[in-house]
Amino acid sequence: MSTPRIPELVVSDLTVKFAGITALDAVGFTVAPGTIHAVIGPNGAGKSTCFNVLSGVYRATSGSVRFGEHELTKLPPHKIAHLGMARTFQNIALSKLMSVENNIMIGRHRLTRSGFLTAGLRLPLNRREERDHRARVREIAAFVGVSEYLAAPTGMLPYGVLKRIELARALAMEPILLMLDEPVAGMNGGERRRMAEVIKAVQEDLGISILLVEHDMGMVMQLADQVTVLDFGKRIASGPPAEVQQNPEVIRAYLGVSDENATGVSMDKERA
Ligand SMILES: Nc1ncnc2c1ncn2[C@@H]1O[C@H](COP(=O)(O)OP(=O)(O)OP(=O)(O)O)[C@@H](O)[C@H]1O
User: Fold this and answer.
1) Domain boundary among 172, 199, 233
2) Cα 25 to averaged position of ligand 1 atoms, centre (Å)
3) Residues of the chain by 3-state class (helix, strand, coil), percent to 5
4) Could you tell me where the beta strands, DSSP code E, fall in the chain?
5) Nearest Cα residue to atom 24 of ligand 1
6) Which of 4, 81, 148, 240 has its Cβ near the most Cβ atoms within 10 Å?
7) In angstroms, rounded to a whole number, what is the distance separating the alpha carbons of residues 106 and 117?
8) For 142-168, how does the pLDDT look when each residue is reduced to its tens digit (9 = 90+)?
9) CATH for 240
10) Is 207 in the pocket of ligand 1 (CB under 6 A)?
11) In terms of domains, do 75 and 10 share one?
């Protein structure tokens, strides 16, 4: 597969205020093309807010998010998706009644000429177009390891499989930047390992950029090229995972203890 041209994602001075709360305070980081960049931090640090601004769901109070030549902070979610940014959600957002194949097909919608969801007239061109899209859906299903479930109603499937179907639907948009919101939350060990393998394969085989919000530090250490750490809306550290994990301020943020008493840190802890 040829690697598409991937722009940098540059977040600068991003501030988001809700009534009385500064959820993000002048945060900046850059996702380099083809890398996995993790945003981590204790509960309430501002990770979801950041994700929601980047995907156009929340408006920034100030600051900028540039994806190549495009400024994203004024764009609605569908325009951001059209630039090749796809996201998954913390909670499963699939239709339980639809088959797995049709759930993944929804990701193709922005790429269809006829808009198959609304097309009433089934002309030969539409049928051919649909056949091509379904072939690509099957390839993507194989890539994330859900081929055997394609015809199954989605509601019956185990949680780990559902999370991979969500990833497949995001990949079906042929993104150049994939945003994953806690992709292994609530999974058991086996499911986590499987998801980590798929995420690594996305980076290696598709060459696209990945922005990851994640609590599981094992996962972040294993996958991320760069990590940005948020605490109470501020960026407190950034760098390669091994470096960030030893940063005294990061240890303090996660454990609430002085760095003399802390050696390394398990960052899946919630703020007390
Ligand atoms: N829509 C909103 N309205 C008001 N306050 C909000 C809203 N969304 C988030 N906040 C507040 O902004 C702060 C950051 O929340 P956010 O959900 O971004 O943190 P988080 O790091 O994603 O936390 P978690 O790990 O628990 O998901 C919190 O104080 C939260 O209560």
Assistant:
1) 172
2) 13
3) 40, 20, 40
4) 9-18, 21-31, 36-40, 62-67, 70-71, 85-87, 177-181, 209-213, 226-231, 234-239
5) 43
6) 81
7) 8
8) 999 999 999 998 988 999 999 999 999
9) 3.40.50.300
10) no
11) yes
Helix (H, G, I), strand (E, B) or coil at 99: strand
Q: Is the pLDDT of residue 113 over 80?
A: no
Rounded distance from Cα 150 to ligand 1 centre (Å): 35
* End-to-end CA gap in the chain: 46
Ligand 1 closest atom vs CA 233: 14
pLDDT in tens, 21-73: 999 999 999 999 999 999 999 989 999 999 999 999 999 999 999 999 999 99
- Look at residues 197, 194, 231, 225 and name the one whose alpha carbon lies nearest to residue 212: 225
Task: Using the structure block, give the residue that is written with the tokens 């990061």.
Answer: 250
From CA 229, how far away is CA 241, in angstroms rounded? 10
Range of the domain at 148: 93-172
Q: Which residue has the tokens 């994203």?
A: 72
59 CB within 6 A, ligand 1: no
Residue 233 is predicted with a pLDDT of 97
CA-CA distance, 18 to 210, in Å (whole number)? 27
Residue 104 has pLDDT above 90, yes or no: yes
Same domain? For 80 and 97 the reply is no
Averaged pLDDT for residues 219-243 = 95
88 Cβ below 6 A of ligand 1: no
110 to 23, 71, 107: CA distances (angstroms):
32, 20, 7
Do 108 and 229 fall into the same domain?
no
CA of 44 to the centre of ligand 1 (A): 5
The CA 49 to ligand 1 mean position distance, Å, reads 6
Measured in residues, the chain has a length of 272
What's the whole-model pTM score?
0.88
Pocket test for ligand 1, best of 27, 49, 229 (most atoms within 8 A of CB): 49
